[in-house]
Write a structure and sequence with these properties.
single chain, mainly beta, Porin, 3 helices, about 15% helix
Length: about 325
């Protein structure tokens, strides 16, 4: 009914316009087969309906992350402090600190299934890591011994989430995203000891997986009709244990060998208090004076700051 009224009003306005033209009110002989201007008028085209918001999108991003690391940092630092305490008792001096493992890089991609103008289902993956290098050197007269530690944490999750966006203007959106994922994780850990001419290396490659959770807050700027730039911060909760894998030992005193190892955490007593220990071993440690023995936990919880682009198809 509304469309019919629009056509009628439009026709009346057009008719009045033509009636004001010079000579329009005079009668003219109509030739057979020739239509009057009103008869020639076309019906207005229907307006296109607004887009429903359903569709597919792709996000690509990269940035920086901070990882908690769990038992790794206090365990390695505690081992160094314990060795240093014993060395000073026997007249050694030392230099060099443990560089905690926290910061690293990340990058990933997400597939977005838009349903409606403000909600999207997000299926994605990303790769993130963090690494550090540390060395402590012990000296006694002309003797010198060094301990090196080179851990690297890696993760590759498959994630599922829900995103909700709120427009702040024609070209700016704020959004929230939350979800769950399965995180495949890896720890590469090289531990070496050098006392010229002798040396020994322990190369450890252990893996484990766990369920984790994430939440994102971001700001998105429209660059073109289907291209957007975004900045976002992510918080993550991912605690992983049950690591296992090969440990290869090489050194100056014999042929290399490889054993299956697991990661352990414990505290060992001393006259100045307990030292925390992060301990890779092929069997459960049975060291006098230890307490709170358990499998070590590597904590990939933390935060990420990243930038990227979203493409809508």
């Amino acid at each position: 009914m509304g469309r019919k009224i629009t056509i009628i009003v439009f026709s009346l306005v057009l008719a009045l316009f033509f009636l004001t033209l010079p000579g329009w009110g005079q009668e003219k002989e109509q030739k057979p087969g020739i239509k009057t201007p009103v008869e020639r008028m076309e019906t207005p085209k229907a307006t296109k309906p607004a887009k429903s918001g359903f569709g597919i999108g792709l996000r690509l991003y990269g940035g920086w992350n901070y990882l908690d690391s769990g038992d790794l940092n206090p365990g390695i630092s505690g081992y160094l402090d314990g060795q240093s305490y014993g060395a000073t008792i026997h007249g050694w001096t030392y230099s060099g600190d443990y560089n905690s493992l926290h910061g690293g890089l990340n990058g990933g991609l997400d597939l977005l299934l838009h349903f409606g103008r403000h909600f999207s289902l997000v299926i994605g993956t990303e790769y993130f890591q963090a690494a550090s290098d540390s060395e402590r050197v012990f000296t006694k007269g002309t003797e010198q011994l060094s301990l090196g530690f080179h851990p690297e944490m890696r993760a590759l999750p498959i994630k599922l989430g829900l995103m909700a966006s709120l427009p702040l203007g024609k070209s700016l959106n704020v959004y929230l995203q939350g979800g769950i994922g399965y995180y495949w994780t890896q720890l590469l850990y090289q531990w070496d000891q050098r006392e010229t001419p002798d040396w020994v290396n322990w190369d450890i490659d252990v893996q484990a997986g766990a369920i984790g959770y994430h939440a994102d807050l971001g700001l998105e700027l429209k660059l073109a009709r289907k291209l957007f730039f975004f900045l976002e911060a992510q918080g993550r909760l991912v605690e992983v244990d049950g690591y296992s894998g090969p440990m290869t030992v090489t050194g100056s005193s014999g042929s290399p060998y490889t054993v299956d190892c697991r990661l352990y955490y414990f505290k060992i007593s001393s006259p100045v208090g307990p030292f925390e220990m992060f301990w890779p071993d092929y069997e459960t440690p049975a060291i006098p004076g230890i307490s709170e023995l358990r499998e070590a936990e590597i904590d990939f919880s933390g935060v990420s700051a990243r930038a990227g682009v979203r493409i809508r198809f």
